[in-house]
Amino acid sequence: MKIGDLVRMPTGTPLAGDPAVGVVVKMPPVGNDGQVRRDRGTPKVLVAWSDGGGMIDWEPMDWLEVVSAAD
Fold first, then answer.
1. CA 57/CA 36 separation, integer angstroms
2. Which of 11 and 1 is assigned the larger pLDDT?
3. Rounded to whole angstroms, how far apart are CA atoms 42 and 46?
4. 2 and 23 Cβ atoms separated by less than 8 Å
5. pLDDT (tens digit, 9 = 90+) per residue, 38-57?
6. 34-63: string of b/e by CB count within 10 Å (b at 16+)?
7. CA within 20 to 30 Å of 61's CA: 4, 21, 23, 52, which one?
8. Closest alpha carbon to 66 in 8, 3, 4
9. How deeply is 21 buried, as exposed, middle or buried, from its count of CB atoms within 10 A (0-12, 13-18, 19+)?
10. What are phi and psi of 6, to 5 degrees?
11. Residue 46 · residue 21 · CB < 8 Å
12. Residue 34 DSSP one-character state
């Protein structure tokens, strides 16, 4: 997952049910090894959702599925 990817919450994910997709606009901190740091609990990404409400929320990475990867 990276900035610019289109994501959604798949069925069975907490808070799923809305068919909205979103764009990842900010990623969590990355360690020296290039991996997302997990020392602060579940890593979250900032997502701008397309549901018409202008909602931008921090969502757990584990709850999201990439629909279309950015180039």
1. 18
2. 1
3. 13
4. no
5. 666 788 999 998 876 778 98
6. eeeeeeeeebbbbbebbeeeeeeeebebeb
7. 52
8. 8
9. middle
10. -90, 130
11. no
12. S
Residue 48: both structure tokens together: 């701008």
Specify the amino acid at residue 64: L
The torsion of the CA quartet 30, 32, 35, 36, rounded to 10 degrees, works out to -30
Under a CB-based contact definition with an 8 Å cutoff, are residues 40 and 49 in contact?
A: no
Distance CA 54, CA 57 (A): 10
The pair of three-digit structure tokens given for residue 50, joined into one six-digit string: 């397309």
Identity of the residue numbered 42: T
